[in-house]
Amino acid sequence: MKILICGGAGYIGSHMVKMLSEAGYDVVVFDNLSTGHREAVKWGTLVVGDLLNKSDLKALFEQHDFAGVMHFSARSLVGESIVEPAIYYENNVVGTYNLLEQMRHSGVDRFIFSSTAAIYGNPENTPIDEAHPKQPINPYGHSKLMVETMLNDYARAYGINSVSLRYFNAAGADPSAQIGESHDPETHLIPNILRSLLLEGIQLKVFGDDYDTPDGTCVRDYIHINDLCQAHLKAFDYLGSHKGAMAFNLGNGTGFSVMEIINAVTEVTSKVVDYSVEARRPGDPAVLIADSQRAVKDLNWIAEYTDIEKVIETAWRWHCQQSY
Ligand code: UDP
After folding, report:
1. pTM exceeding the 0.85 threshold for the entire prediction
2. Nearest C-alpha to atom 1 of ligand 1 is from which residue?
3. Mutate which of 138, 190, 207, 228 to test ligand 1's pocket (most atoms within 8 Å of Cβ)?
4. CA-to-CA distance for 135 and 116, rounded, in angstroms?
5. CB of 258 shorter than 6 A to ligand 1
6. Segment 180-209, tens digit of pLDDT
7. CA separation for the pair 43, 22 (Å, rounded)
8. What structural domains and CATH numbers belong to the chain?
Protein backbone atom coordinates (compact mmCIF):
# COMPACT_ATOMS: atom_id res chain seq x y z
CA MET A 1 0.00 0.00 0.00
CA LYS A 2 1.43 3.36 -1.02
CA ILE A 3 1.11 6.30 1.37
CA LEU A 4 1.96 9.93 0.76
CA ILE A 5 3.66 11.69 3.67
CA CYS A 6 3.56 15.45 3.26
CA GLY A 7 6.26 16.93 5.45
CA GLY A 8 8.14 13.64 5.81
CA ALA A 9 11.47 15.45 6.14
CA GLY A 10 10.42 17.07 9.42
CA TYR A 11 10.65 15.83 12.99
CA ILE A 12 7.35 13.96 13.28
CA GLY A 13 7.06 13.14 9.58
CA SER A 14 10.48 11.48 9.40
CA HIS A 15 9.63 9.20 12.34
CA MET A 16 6.35 8.32 10.63
CA VAL A 17 8.18 7.46 7.41
CA LYS A 18 10.47 5.08 9.29
CA MET A 19 7.60 3.39 11.11
CA LEU A 20 5.48 2.98 7.97
CA SER A 21 8.41 1.65 5.96
CA GLU A 22 9.21 -0.86 8.67
CA ALA A 23 5.55 -1.89 8.74
CA GLY A 24 5.79 -2.70 5.02
CA TYR A 25 4.15 0.35 3.47
CA ASP A 26 5.48 1.98 0.34
CA VAL A 27 6.18 5.60 1.30
CA VAL A 28 6.50 8.74 -0.82
CA VAL A 29 7.62 11.91 0.95
CA PHE A 30 6.57 15.30 -0.42
CA ASP A 31 8.39 18.18 1.24
CA ASN A 32 9.60 21.64 0.26
CA LEU A 33 12.55 21.29 2.68
CA SER A 34 11.82 24.75 4.13
CA THR A 35 12.08 23.47 7.69
CA GLY A 36 12.70 19.76 7.09
CA HIS A 37 15.97 18.02 6.33
CA ARG A 38 16.82 15.98 3.25
CA GLU A 39 19.02 13.69 5.35
CA ALA A 40 16.05 12.83 7.62
CA VAL A 41 14.38 10.98 4.73
CA LYS A 42 16.22 7.70 5.08
CA TRP A 43 13.34 5.53 3.88
CA GLY A 44 10.94 5.83 0.96
CA THR A 45 11.15 8.23 -1.98
CA LEU A 46 11.62 11.97 -1.55
CA VAL A 47 9.82 14.32 -3.94
CA VAL A 48 10.77 17.96 -3.40
CA GLY A 49 7.77 20.17 -4.07
CA ASP A 50 5.41 22.68 -2.54
CA LEU A 51 1.78 22.35 -1.51
CA LEU A 52 1.31 25.93 -2.70
CA ASN A 53 2.29 24.86 -6.20
CA LYS A 54 -0.71 23.05 -7.68
CA SER A 55 1.29 21.71 -10.63
CA ASP A 56 3.70 19.96 -8.20
CA LEU A 57 0.72 18.26 -6.59
CA LYS A 58 -0.87 17.32 -9.90
CA ALA A 59 2.36 15.72 -11.14
CA LEU A 60 2.80 13.85 -7.84
CA PHE A 61 -0.68 12.34 -7.88
CA GLU A 62 -0.42 11.48 -11.57
CA GLN A 63 2.76 9.58 -10.93
CA HIS A 64 1.59 7.61 -7.89
CA ASP A 65 -1.51 5.75 -6.84
CA PHE A 66 -1.93 6.64 -3.15
CA ALA A 67 -4.08 4.68 -0.71
CA GLY A 68 -3.99 7.64 1.66
CA VAL A 69 -2.22 10.77 2.81
CA MET A 70 -0.65 11.78 6.11
CA HIS A 71 -0.12 15.51 6.33
CA PHE A 72 2.65 16.89 8.56
CA SER A 73 3.63 19.93 6.48
CA ALA A 74 2.95 23.03 8.50
CA ARG A 75 4.51 26.01 10.15
CA SER A 76 4.17 25.47 13.89
CA LEU A 77 5.68 28.31 15.92
CA VAL A 78 3.11 30.18 17.96
CA GLY A 79 5.26 33.33 18.32
CA GLU A 80 6.04 33.49 14.62
CA SER A 81 2.36 33.02 13.80
CA ILE A 82 1.47 36.14 15.79
CA VAL A 83 4.05 38.27 13.96
CA GLU A 84 3.52 36.70 10.51
CA PRO A 85 -0.02 35.30 10.37
CA ALA A 86 -0.05 35.37 6.56
CA ILE A 87 2.61 32.65 6.45
CA TYR A 88 0.37 30.45 8.62
CA TYR A 89 -2.82 30.99 6.67
CA GLU A 90 -0.99 30.45 3.39
CA ASN A 91 1.03 27.36 4.33
CA ASN A 92 -1.30 25.68 6.77
CA VAL A 93 -4.70 26.54 5.32
CA VAL A 94 -4.19 27.21 1.59
CA GLY A 95 -1.56 24.45 1.34
CA THR A 96 -3.94 21.93 2.92
CA TYR A 97 -6.82 23.13 0.75
CA ASN A 98 -4.69 22.50 -2.37
CA LEU A 99 -3.80 19.04 -1.10
CA LEU A 100 -7.43 18.13 -0.35
CA GLU A 101 -8.53 19.39 -3.74
CA GLN A 102 -5.91 17.23 -5.46
CA MET A 103 -7.00 14.22 -3.37
CA ARG A 104 -10.60 14.86 -4.38
CA HIS A 105 -9.63 15.13 -8.02
CA SER A 106 -7.58 11.91 -7.83
CA GLY A 107 -10.15 9.98 -5.78
CA VAL A 108 -7.95 9.53 -2.67
CA ASP A 109 -10.18 9.48 0.40
CA ARG A 110 -8.07 8.65 3.50
CA PHE A 111 -6.44 11.55 5.28
CA ILE A 112 -4.53 11.86 8.57
CA PHE A 113 -4.02 15.41 9.76
CA SER A 114 -1.51 16.78 12.30
CA SER A 115 -3.62 18.95 14.54
CA THR A 116 -2.71 20.46 17.87
CA ALA A 117 -3.73 21.22 21.44
CA ALA A 118 -3.44 24.87 20.37
CA ILE A 119 -6.95 24.66 18.90
CA TYR A 120 -8.34 24.60 22.47
CA GLY A 121 -6.77 27.91 23.50
CA ASN A 122 -6.55 28.58 27.23
CA PRO A 123 -7.72 25.45 29.03
CA GLU A 124 -10.94 25.80 30.97
CA ASN A 125 -10.35 22.49 32.73
CA THR A 126 -7.70 19.81 32.91
CA PRO A 127 -7.10 17.25 31.53
CA ILE A 128 -8.45 18.46 28.18
CA ASP A 129 -10.73 16.12 26.25
CA GLU A 130 -11.98 16.51 22.69
CA ALA A 131 -15.22 18.19 23.79
CA HIS A 132 -13.33 21.12 25.33
CA PRO A 133 -14.29 24.46 23.71
CA LYS A 134 -12.17 25.30 20.69
CA GLN A 135 -11.00 28.87 21.09
CA PRO A 136 -7.50 29.28 19.67
CA ILE A 137 -5.55 32.26 20.98
CA ASN A 138 -3.06 32.58 18.12
CA PRO A 139 -2.99 32.31 14.30
CA TYR A 140 -1.22 28.93 14.47
CA GLY A 141 -4.13 27.44 16.44
CA HIS A 142 -6.64 29.19 14.20
CA SER A 143 -5.00 27.80 11.06
CA LYS A 144 -5.23 24.23 12.40
CA LEU A 145 -8.84 24.62 13.53
CA MET A 146 -9.75 26.02 10.11
CA VAL A 147 -8.43 22.84 8.52
CA GLU A 148 -10.38 20.68 10.97
CA THR A 149 -13.51 22.62 10.00
CA MET A 150 -12.70 22.08 6.34
CA LEU A 151 -12.24 18.36 6.97
CA ASN A 152 -15.72 18.07 8.48
CA ASP A 153 -17.19 19.65 5.37
CA TYR A 154 -15.04 17.60 2.97
CA ALA A 155 -16.12 14.37 4.67
CA ARG A 156 -19.79 15.25 4.42
CA ALA A 157 -19.76 16.64 0.89
CA TYR A 158 -16.99 14.73 -0.88
CA GLY A 159 -16.47 11.55 1.15
CA ILE A 160 -12.89 12.37 2.13
CA ASN A 161 -12.55 10.56 5.45
CA SER A 162 -10.10 11.92 7.96
CA VAL A 163 -8.62 11.66 11.41
CA SER A 164 -7.23 14.81 13.01
CA LEU A 165 -4.72 14.02 15.73
CA ARG A 166 -4.37 16.81 18.26
CA TYR A 167 -0.83 16.61 19.55
CA PHE A 168 0.24 17.82 22.94
CA ASN A 169 4.06 18.02 23.32
CA ALA A 170 5.86 15.63 20.97
CA ALA A 171 9.23 14.66 22.43
CA GLY A 172 12.13 12.21 22.16
CA ALA A 173 13.65 10.46 19.19
CA ASP A 174 13.65 7.04 17.59
CA PRO A 175 15.69 4.76 19.89
CA SER A 176 17.97 3.92 16.94
CA ALA A 177 19.14 7.58 17.07
CA GLN A 178 19.06 7.66 13.26
CA ILE A 179 16.56 10.52 13.29
CA GLY A 180 15.60 13.10 15.90
CA GLU A 181 14.32 16.58 16.61
CA SER A 182 16.13 19.42 14.89
CA HIS A 183 14.59 22.85 14.38
CA ASP A 184 16.20 26.13 13.42
CA PRO A 185 15.68 28.13 15.50
CA GLU A 186 15.08 25.56 18.26
CA THR A 187 12.31 26.70 20.58
CA HIS A 188 11.26 23.48 22.31
CA LEU A 189 12.12 22.74 25.89
CA ILE A 190 13.78 19.31 25.81
CA PRO A 191 16.06 19.99 22.79
CA ASN A 192 16.96 23.36 24.28
CA ILE A 193 17.99 21.77 27.56
CA LEU A 194 20.04 19.10 25.79
CA ARG A 195 21.68 21.65 23.50
CA SER A 196 22.63 23.74 26.54
CA LEU A 197 24.53 20.69 27.83
CA LEU A 198 26.32 20.06 24.55
CA LEU A 199 27.02 23.54 23.23
CA GLU A 200 29.53 25.93 24.73
CA GLY A 201 28.18 29.16 26.16
CA ILE A 202 24.47 28.32 25.89
CA GLN A 203 22.39 28.73 28.99
CA LEU A 204 18.82 27.48 29.21
CA LYS A 205 16.16 30.13 29.72
CA VAL A 206 13.22 29.09 31.87
CA PHE A 207 10.26 31.16 30.76
CA GLY A 208 8.51 32.08 34.00
CA ASP A 209 8.46 30.57 37.48
CA ASP A 210 5.43 32.43 38.80
CA TYR A 211 2.65 30.35 37.22
CA ASP A 212 -0.12 28.84 39.30
CA THR A 213 1.53 25.39 39.35
CA PRO A 214 3.21 23.44 42.18
CA ASP A 215 6.72 24.78 41.42
CA GLY A 216 5.69 27.88 39.47
CA THR A 217 6.87 26.63 36.06
CA CYS A 218 4.59 25.52 33.21
CA VAL A 219 3.28 21.97 33.09
CA ARG A 220 3.10 20.10 29.78
CA ASP A 221 2.16 16.62 28.58
CA TYR A 222 5.16 15.13 26.74
CA ILE A 223 4.37 12.26 24.39
CA HIS A 224 7.11 10.18 22.81
CA ILE A 225 7.40 10.60 19.06
CA ASN A 226 7.01 6.87 18.38
CA ASP A 227 3.87 6.66 20.52
CA LEU A 228 2.55 9.54 18.46
CA CYS A 229 3.41 7.76 15.20
CA GLN A 230 1.83 4.50 16.42
CA ALA A 231 -1.42 6.41 16.82
CA HIS A 232 -1.17 7.52 13.18
CA LEU A 233 -0.78 3.93 12.03
CA LYS A 234 -3.83 2.94 14.07
CA ALA A 235 -5.79 5.93 12.80
CA PHE A 236 -4.98 4.96 9.23
CA ASP A 237 -6.38 1.46 9.85
CA TYR A 238 -9.39 2.96 11.62
CA LEU A 239 -10.25 4.89 8.46
CA GLY A 240 -10.52 1.58 6.63
CA SER A 241 -13.78 0.91 8.51
CA HIS A 242 -14.97 4.35 9.73
CA LYS A 243 -16.36 7.15 7.62
CA GLY A 244 -16.40 10.83 8.47
CA ALA A 245 -14.06 13.35 10.06
CA MET A 246 -12.85 12.21 13.48
CA ALA A 247 -10.51 13.84 15.99
CA PHE A 248 -8.43 12.48 18.85
CA ASN A 249 -6.16 14.02 21.47
CA LEU A 250 -2.72 12.49 21.81
CA GLY A 251 -0.80 12.88 25.03
CA ASN A 252 0.57 10.82 27.87
CA GLY A 253 -1.99 12.07 30.35
CA THR A 254 0.71 13.10 32.82
CA GLY A 255 2.04 16.61 33.24
CA PHE A 256 5.64 17.57 33.95
CA SER A 257 6.78 21.05 34.90
CA VAL A 258 9.77 22.73 33.28
CA MET A 259 11.71 22.16 36.51
CA GLU A 260 10.74 18.48 36.58
CA ILE A 261 12.01 18.12 33.02
CA ILE A 262 15.29 19.82 33.96
CA ASN A 263 15.69 17.42 36.90
CA ALA A 264 14.85 14.41 34.73
CA VAL A 265 17.52 15.51 32.23
CA THR A 266 20.06 15.59 35.06
CA GLU A 267 18.99 12.07 36.08
CA VAL A 268 19.48 10.80 32.52
CA THR A 269 22.68 12.65 31.62
CA SER A 270 24.30 13.05 35.07
CA LYS A 271 24.88 16.70 34.09
CA VAL A 272 23.74 19.80 35.88
CA VAL A 273 21.63 22.14 33.75
CA ASP A 274 22.66 25.78 33.97
CA TYR A 275 19.57 27.96 33.64
CA SER A 276 18.27 31.44 34.26
CA VAL A 277 14.67 32.33 35.01
CA GLU A 278 13.31 34.81 32.49
CA ALA A 279 9.97 36.51 31.91
CA ARG A 280 6.99 34.42 30.83
CA ARG A 281 6.83 33.63 27.12
CA PRO A 282 3.71 35.25 25.62
CA GLY A 283 0.88 32.82 24.94
CA ASP A 284 2.04 30.00 27.26
CA PRO A 285 -0.85 28.54 29.31
CA ALA A 286 0.18 27.34 32.80
CA VAL A 287 -0.97 23.73 32.35
CA LEU A 288 -1.70 21.63 29.24
CA ILE A 289 -2.53 17.99 29.85
CA ALA A 290 -4.38 15.70 27.47
CA ASP A 291 -7.20 13.34 28.14
CA SER A 292 -6.46 10.77 25.41
CA GLN A 293 -9.06 8.22 26.48
CA ARG A 294 -10.89 8.47 23.16
CA ALA A 295 -7.75 7.37 21.28
CA VAL A 296 -7.19 4.57 23.79
CA LYS A 297 -10.74 3.33 23.38
CA ASP A 298 -11.49 3.89 19.70
CA LEU A 299 -8.04 3.49 18.13
CA ASN A 300 -6.92 0.81 20.58
CA TRP A 301 -3.82 2.93 21.17
CA ILE A 302 -1.70 3.07 24.27
CA ALA A 303 1.34 5.20 25.05
CA GLU A 304 4.33 2.99 25.80
CA TYR A 305 6.75 5.68 26.92
CA THR A 306 5.11 6.70 30.18
CA ASP A 307 8.45 7.22 31.93
CA ILE A 308 9.72 10.73 31.12
CA GLU A 309 13.34 9.66 31.66
CA LYS A 310 13.00 7.07 28.91
CA VAL A 311 11.67 9.76 26.58
CA ILE A 312 14.59 12.06 27.41
CA GLU A 313 17.08 9.23 27.08
CA THR A 314 16.10 8.69 23.43
CA ALA A 315 16.42 12.42 22.71
CA TRP A 316 19.80 12.56 24.47
CA ARG A 317 21.14 9.65 22.44
CA TRP A 318 20.30 11.46 19.21
CA HIS A 319 21.57 14.85 20.34
CA CYS A 320 24.90 13.35 21.41
CA GLN A 321 25.47 12.24 17.82
CA GLN A 322 24.96 15.69 16.31
CA SER A 323 28.00 17.73 15.35
CA TYR A 324 27.18 20.89 17.29
N1 UDP B 1 10.32 26.55 27.72
C2 UDP B 1 11.34 27.11 28.48
N3 UDP B 1 12.55 27.32 27.87
C4 UDP B 1 12.79 26.98 26.57
C5 UDP B 1 11.74 26.39 25.82
C6 UDP B 1 10.52 26.19 26.43
O7 UDP B 1 11.16 27.44 29.65
O8 UDP B 1 13.90 27.21 26.07
C9 UDP B 1 9.02 26.28 28.37
C10 UDP B 1 7.86 26.97 27.66
O11 UDP B 1 7.67 28.27 28.18
C12 UDP B 1 6.70 26.02 28.01
C13 UDP B 1 7.37 24.64 28.07
O14 UDP B 1 8.77 24.90 28.27
O15 UDP B 1 6.19 26.31 29.28
C16 UDP B 1 7.21 23.82 26.81
O17 UDP B 1 7.55 24.63 25.70
P18 UDP B 1 7.75 24.05 24.24
O19 UDP B 1 8.15 25.21 23.36
O20 UDP B 1 8.67 22.89 24.28
O21 UDP B 1 6.33 23.50 23.82
P22 UDP B 1 4.88 24.22 23.78
O23 UDP B 1 4.17 23.74 25.01
O24 UDP B 1 5.07 25.69 23.72
O25 UDP B 1 4.28 23.65 22.54
Report:
1. yes
2. 189
3. 207
4. 12
5. yes
6. 999 999 999 999 999 999 999 999 999 999
7. 9
8. 2-170+222-250 (3.40.50.720), 173-221+253-319 (3.90.25.10)
